[in-house]
Amino acid sequence: MDELLRKVKARVEELGLSLKDAADQIGVTVTSLQRHLGGEYVRSDSLAKYRGWLDGRRATSRPVQQVIQSLLPPGSEDDRDVGGIGSVRIVCPPFRRSKPYKVVDLFSGCGGMSLGFDLLSPEALVEADPDGLALPGERAVKAGVFETVLALDIEAKVVDIQNKNHLAAGALQGYPARCVSLADFQNACEMLAYYLDHLANRSGDRDLRAGLNALSRLPLAEFKALVRRLDTHFLAALERRRADARFRHEYGEVDSTVFGQTSVVGFHEALALPQTSTSKPSLGPLVWADHGGSSAEALSLPDLARLHGYERAHAEATESADALWEGELAKLVGRTEGKGRGQLASSAGRIRRFTEFLKTEPMKQVKAAWLAWRAARDALRLVTFSDPGVEAGLRELYSADRRVDVLLGGPPCQGFSRIGRGKIRSLREHHVHVETDPEAGDVRNLLLLRYVEFVSALEPRFFMFENVRHFQASVKTPEGEFLATEVLNDAIQELSQHRVSYRVRDRVVDCSRHLIPQTRERFVMVGVRTDISHPACAAELLPDWCLDLPVLPPVPLRAALEGLPAPLVARGQRAGEVAGMSATVRVTGEGVGAAVQGPSSVYLRWVRQVSGSGTDGEANTQTDAHFIRDPRADDQAFFALLGPGERWMDYRCDQSPTLLALRQTLEALRGLFPDDAEDGQVLTGAGGTATFDRATVERLLACLDGSLSIRLLLESIPPRDGELHHHLLTTNYLAKREGNNGDWIARLHPDRPCKTVVSHMAKDTYAYVHPWEPRTLSVREAARLQTFPDWFRFGELGLVDAFRAVGNAVPPLLSYQFGMKVGRLLWACEAAGRAHEARETAAHLNGVQAAG
C-alpha cells in the first residue's frame, strides 16, 4: 500500500496536478487524498481507484484503438499491459459449427458466469472487431456459440432460478442446473459418470444411455436403482423413528431454537443427515440423490455383497462414517465452551442442549440407521467408480460432441476474502460455528480441489476459475499458512502430468474497466489445453490473450439506475417472498438513445436486451424484484442528510478546533467542582446568572469526541414513537470510523462506479444508500450493477435470498467479454486446424495425381 501511494504522489507531482485535480481524476475526495498521502489507512475500494488511475496513465507503445465501433468517443486508450498481447489479432471466420460449444458451470449460483457465455451469438462473434465487443441482439434459439449443458450448485433456490432463466434466454434444451454438493463427489470417475448421465437425460442420447447401461462392473441404471433403494430405505427407517412416541417426547423437551442454531444445522449438513424434526425427512443435495424416490415406498435393502470388493469397502466406509459423526460431535462439544458476543451469546447453551439430545436412546437409533445407510452408500459408489473397467468404459463414451469445451466456476470465496478470514478467526476463538479443517483453515477452501478434479474428469479445452481478489493472499491455518494460488497451480500442474496438460495464467480484473458499473476486483485464472494452437499467437501466450479484455472508461452508477421507476417496498416479517418479489414494474426507455453516449450506452443496451423468448426488436419494458426493505422513517431522515459519496465516518469532526476548545472549557469547568462534590451539587456563575450541575458537565464531556457532529445530526431527527432518541445514538455506533466499518452507512455517488456489490446486502443494505433518494438500493438495482439483463427474473426468491444470489454472482457482462475471447479462440483454432487438414489433404491428392 505504501509503495502504491508513493507512486500516486510521484505521478501527481510529475503531471503538475493540484490535489483537487488529482482527486477528481482518481475519483476520491480531496480530504481522502490528503489523508492517504499522509500515511492514513486506505480502504480496498480506494486502493482500486488509485491502481486504476495509475494504470489509466500508463505509457503504451500500442496505438489508440476504438474498442467498440461507433460507440466510444475518440481517444479511448487501450492501456492493457499483458506483455506483447496487444499486437495479437485472432480474427474469427464465419461461424458454421453445427452445435454450440459445451459449457459446464461449477458453484454456479444463479448462473451469472455461464449466462454471459450463453448469450454470445455467432453474429457477434464474427462481426466484432478482433479487439472489440459486439452486444447480443435477439437471442435466437439454437443460435448460440455456447450452451451450458450442466451447472452445479448446493442451493436449491438459486438452482431453480438459473434453470428458469436459462430457458428464458433461449436454451437449446431443458434445465442444465442441478442441486448437488460438489464436496460429495468421491473421485474424477464419478464426476464423469454424473456428467454423462445428465447429458444422456438432457439430450435424449440413446446411444449414450445404452453405453452407460453396458458398463463392465455395473450398469449405471442398476447402480442408480441400488442407490435409490438405499436412500428410500433410510428415509423410511428415519420416518418410523421420528414417529415413535419416545422420540417425540425427547424432541419436545428441546427448545425449537436449538435446531436452528448454525452449528447444529452445520452438524446435519456435514453428515448429510436430514434436519432433526418430527416432519417427513428428505435428503439434501447428495450426488445421485436427485433422481426421485419416496420414503413411503416399501423397498427391501439391495444385496450388495455380491459386488467384488464390496465387503472390504463397506468395512472401511463404516469406520470412516463413524469417525465423521464423532468428529462433528467433538466440534460441537468444543463450541459449548464458547462465550460469543451479541446474538452469539446464547449459542453455546443451545449447542450444549443439542449434544445432550444426541445422547438420548432415540438419537442413538437415528445414528445407527444413518451409519448403516452412509456406509452402504459410500461403499457402493467406491467399488463402482474405482473400477478401471468402469473408467475405461466412461472414457470411451466421452468422445466427439459429448466432450466439454469450457469449464467455468469458482468455489465459495468467504474462506479467501480478508473479511471472511477475519470473521472465521473471530468465531473460531469463540468456538461458535465455523467448519474448519487443520490443513485448509476453512473447509470451503478444499472445494477448489474439487474444481481441479472436475478439470481432470472432463478435460475441457478451456477452463476459467474466478474468485475474490484476495485469493492471492496468504491463508493462515492452525497448521501454518499457504498461498491459495500456489495450491491451485500445483494441482493444475500435477494434473498436467497425466492425460492432458494446460497453459495457465492469472490476473486480477478490475471490473470497472470493463463496462461493469462497480469497483469490483476479482482474481481470474484461465487454462488453455496445450493441444490448442493458432498461427497468429504463440501457444504460451494464448491464456494471456484470453485474459486481455478491452479497457474502457468507467460506467457510472447513474447509468445503472437509468429507466427504473420508484421501487416497491417489501413489508412485514416475510417481506419479499414469492408473491411480492414477482411483481413487475415498467422500465422506461429514456436515456438509451443519443442522450447517453459511450460506455454507458453500451451498458444500457446490454441490460435492456431482449431475451430469447422475447419479441424481435422490442426492448424489455417490465422487470421484477425492484424491491427495497421497508425503511425506518428516522433512518430515511438521516439518509437525506448524507451527501453523494459520503460515508458515516466522513461526518466525524475529530480535528475540529471548536471541538477541542469546547472540551478544554468543560474540563476546566469540571475542575472547579470540589473533589468531594456530590452528583447533585451545582456551581453558580458570577452574579448567580447560571448554574452548572456536575453530572451534566460529565455527560457533555462524554459527548465531546469526533462523533459530536454525527450526534447533532441524529439528535435533529425526531425519534420514533416509544423511543427516547434515534436508535443509532449509541456508543457502539458512534465509535465507528475508518478501519472500524465506518462506511457501514454510506450514500453512493451517482457519477462514479458503485462500490462492490456483496452478498452481505442480504443482511444490511445501509452501505448502499441511493445516490439521491433517502433509501437503500433495491434488488433489481443491485442486479443492474451486476449487469443482469432486465429480463432475468429473481422474483421467486425472497428479498434476502435474492440479494445474496446477486451479490455472489459473476457479472454476466464480464463473462460475456471472456466468452467473446474464448469463443473466438476456440472457433479460430478449430477453423485453422481444418484449413490445415484441407491443405494437407489437397497436397496429398496432388502428389498422388502427379505420381499417377
The helix-and-strand class reads alpha/beta
Instruction: Kindly provide the radius of gyration, computed on alpha-carbon positions and rounded to a whole number of angstroms.
Output: 31 Å
Poorly predicted residue ranges: 57-83, 137-142, 292-296, 415-442, 591-595, 613-618
Helix % is: 40-55%
Beta-strand percent range: 5-15%
Structural write-up:
With 852 residues, this protein is of the alpha/beta class. It contains 32 helices and 15 strands. The protein is 44% helix and 8% strand. The chain has a 7-stranded mixed β-sheet, with helices on both faces. A two-stranded antiparallel ribbon has the order 6-7. A two-stranded parallel sheet has the order 10-13. The longest helix is centred in the last third of the chain and has 40 residues, at 812-851.
Topology:
Blueprint lengths: L1 H14 L3 H8 L3 H8 L6 H13 L44 E6 L5 H7 L3 H6 L18 E8 L2 H13 L8 E3 L8 H16 L2 H7 L7 H24 L1 H8 L3 H5 L1 H10 L38 H26 L11 H12 L2 H25 L2 H10 L8 E4 L8 H12 L17 H12 L3 E7 L5 E4 L2 E4 H13 L5 E9 L10 E9 L12 H6 L9 H4 L7 E3 L7 H4 L2 E3 L11 H10 L14 E3 L2 E3 L3 H9 L15 H15 L10 E3 L6 E3 H10 L4 H8 L15 H4 L44 H7 L13 H10 L3 H40 L1
Parallel strand pairs: 1-2, 1-4, 2-3, 4-5, 10-13
Antiparallel strand pairs: 5-9, 6-7, 8-9, 11-12, 14-15
Helix pairs in contact: 1-4, 2-3, 5-32, 8-9, 8-17, 8-19, 10-16, 13-14, 14-15, 14-16, 19-20, 26-27
